[in-house]
Design goal:
The protein is mainly beta and 94 residues long. The chain has one helix at 14-25; strands at 6-11, 43-59, 64-80, 86-92. Helix content is 13%, strand content 50%. The chain has a four-stranded antiparallel sheet with strand order 1-2-3-4.
Length: 94
């Protein structure tokens, strides 16, 4: 017999995370681009560390388990010459 397991996560205060990421993407940081070398474009990077908390819920047919979590993410933006910062990646540090 197959047992199914459902896992969901609810983040506390997602609007604060969204604001931090938008601040990173649209910040007033103006990089100074160096010269392009050997057909490689110079880019500027900026990163922000964001702590995220919430609840992970795991359900099967018999029970539900709720666990609080606190983890850290790093969001990194890249700005190419004559463009806006753009979120390129995020990583969980746990």
């Amino acid at each position: 017999m197959k047992n199914s397991l459902e896992i969901t996560a609810a983040i506390d205060h997602p609007e604060l995370i969204e604001a931090k990421v938008e601040q990173l993407a649209y910040g007033h940081y103006e990089p100074r681009h160096g010269n392009d070398i050997d057909n490689h474009e110079a880019v500027a990077t900026i990163s922000a560390e964001v702590y995220v908390s919430g609840i992970v819920a795991m359900n099967n047919s018999l029970e539900q388990i709720n666990m609080h979590f606190l983890t850290c993410f790093v969001f990194t933006s890249i700005k190419r010459r004559d463009s806006n910062f753009r979120i390129e990646w995020s990583s969980s540090l746990t």
